[in-house]
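U., I forgot to send this yesterday:
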Amino acid sequence: MSLNTYLNFHDNCREAFEFYRSVFGGEFISLETFRNGPPGMDIPEDEKDRIMHASLPIGSSVLMGSDLCSAFGPPPVFGNNFYISFNSDTKDEADDRFAKLSEGGEVEMDMQDMFWGSYFGALKDKFGIKWQVSYTPPQE
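Result:
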């Protein structure tokens, strides 16, 4: 299991992650645009080159981020534009942690299988902290 930070940007995720890479070094694990997303995402054409997912390893952690598109709601509010990302060792553990964290809070996205291969959900806990919970099965 691990905890990582996930940052949300309006339209400058690529610029921010290039900056972080210049500071910490290393290579991106992922730097994908919405243009590379699955069909049916309903992203406006002028937003398709925004970053859908970026991940940069820093030591034993991974800094992750994305741009938020208008199809997903209003732009991020700075100070509330991040998630703590909990990566579980099992699907049952992911469900358990998600249920406990969401008690008294607000579920943003129920736990579900996602197109990138993970089981994933998002919530805001009763203290206003935003969490992403995921389980990625081992590659065979």
